[in-house]
Design brief:
Blueprint (H helix, E strand, L loop, with lengths): L9 H4 L13 E5 H17 L3 E2 L9 H9 L5 E3 L2 H9 L4 E4 L6 H16 L3 E6 L2 H11 L6 E6 L15 H9 L4 E7 L3 H4 L4 H24 L6 E4 L5 H5 L6 E2 L9 H4 L14 E10 L4 E3 L14 E2 L4 E6 L4 E5 L11 E5 L3 H5 L4 E6 L6 E7 L8
Parallel strand pairs: 1-16, 2-9, 3-4, 4-5, 5-6, 6-7, 7-8, 8-9
Antiparallel strand pairs: 1-10, 10-11, 10-15, 11-14, 12-15, 13-14, 16-17
Helix pairs in contact: 4-5, 5-6
The protein binds pyridoxal-5'-phosphate.
Length: 386
């Protein structure tokens, strides 16, 4: 059992070593045994397929979990925000990739400061760009120091989010990066978030065929101009097996695999990649009963619902409504509804924004109903949105 960090609120610290029954509700609970099986499976998979793993820490926002993933072989962590990078760096994570564009000059000053700090510790900061102005602003913030930061050019590979629109648009950006001494052209960012949640294997494969073709075309154009793209990075928990087997992606950024949410569970399983277990739950209690339904004490201030309502772990119950502090559940079969005071375990619809609602995750060993609280995990980058 780990000891509680100094900053742990006393009521949480008192839980260490106690049975799961002592956890008050609502609470965010991690099944550490399931999480570690997921962690190991992904690390082994990346190793066996000869690709690097840089898991996305936007999901758990935790330095302790980042360190655990890196100890298992991850080369570093992805984050989405400057402040997430700062929070993880402050807790000792030294290899970070902001897989996102940063434009504001004040924020780029922070990026520059962090790049220097990480370099001085023997670590590294990387960042994504998708515009010449962004490259110029980044270079201005970094000054003339040599080789301070790794830069990936982002290509839109079907999500219609960030990234240059066409493979040919990557070349002028790659050339511009190469002209600045402080920047090192690290490669290409090619992530299609929409493809992760396409429900059938056939749909996801079709989307990834497109992604991979665009990456190949980009490589051809950029290399024909005499510039190398050392690494192609991307992939999420829905498609990483396709990127890993593509022969063009060198790094996987999947994040959700560690916890697995109800939305991902709706994907048809792809035999080309390992399956993961649910490891993140909201412990909740039935606070009101009626003939037709029960109400539990965790609403969408406890679990995010923008990707769908939660599932109820191991019970023939479905969520039919949710408000700030309440979720309504109805029976899906003939079993009686749970009694007033009963404990239930919700599997959140979407893990990333669920974690961001909590300061702490309670780590349990030995299973949910019968296990013991073994660890308290701080959500270090909670609320780090800038
Ligand atoms: C750029 C980027 N890479 C990787 C991921 C990880 O995806 P997932 O958590 O679905 O595995 C995300 C998630 O949104 C992302 O935005």
């Amino acid at each position: 059992m780990k000891s509680a960090p100094d900053s742990t609120p006393p009521h949480l610290a008192a839980l260490l070593g106690q049975s799961v029954a002592h956890i008050d509700t609502p609470a965010l609970v991690v099944d550490l045994d399931a999480m570690e099986r997921n962690l190991r499976k992904m690390a082994d998979y990346a190793k066996a397929h000869g690709v690097k793993l840089r898991p996305h820490a936007k999901m758990h926002k935790s330095a302790a979990l980042s360190r655990r993933q890196m100890q298992a072989g991850a080369t570093g962590m992805c984050v989405q925000k400057t402040s997430e990078a700062e929070a993880l760096a402050a807790s000792g994570v030294n290899d970070l990739y902001i897989s996102n564009e940063v434009i504001a000059p004040a924020k780029l000053q922070r990026v520059a400061a962090l790049a220097r700090t990480l370099k001085s510790r023997g670590g590294r900061l990387a960042i994504a760009v998708d515009h010449l102005q962004g490259i110029a602003a980044l270079a201005r913030a970094l000054g003339t120091d040599e080789n301070l930061i790794d830069v990936f050019v982002e290509l839109d590979v079907g999500q219609k989010r960030c990234g240059v629109a066409e493979p040919a648009d990557v070349l002028p950006l790659a050339q511009a990066i190469s002209r600045h001494t402080s920047l090192r052209l690290a490669g290409l960012q090619a992530y299609n978030g929409r493809a992760q949640h396409l429900r059938t294997v056939a749909e996801r494969r079709a989307a990834l065929d497109e992604v991979i073709a665009r990456v190949r075309e980009t490589r051809r154009i950029v290399e024909a101009a005499g510039i190398q793209l050392p690494l192609v990075t991307g992939a999420g928990s829905g498609t990483f097996g396709l990127e890993a087997g593509s022969g063009v992606f060198g790094e996987l950024q999947a994040g959700s695999y560690l916890f697995m949410d109800a939305d991902y569970a709706r994907n048809q399983a792809d035999p080309a990649q390992p399956a993961f277990e649910h490891a993140l739950f909201v412990k909740t209690q039935v606070m009101s009963v009626s003939k037709s339904h029960v109400v539990v004490d965790a609403g969408h201030k406890s679990h995010a619902i923008e990707s769908g309502l939660p599932r109820v772990h191991g019970e023939a119950l479905e969520a039919t409504g949710c408000s700030d502090e309440h979720t309504t559940l109805r029976a899906t079969g003939s079993a009686p509804l749970p009694a007033l005071g009963a404990t239930l375990w919700l599997i959140p619809g979407h893990c990333d924004p669920t974690v961001n609602l909590h300061d702490w995750m309670i780590g349990v060993r030995g299973g949910l109903p019968a296990g013991t609280v073994a660890e308290l995990i701080r959500v270090d980058a909670r609320g780090c949105l800038d």
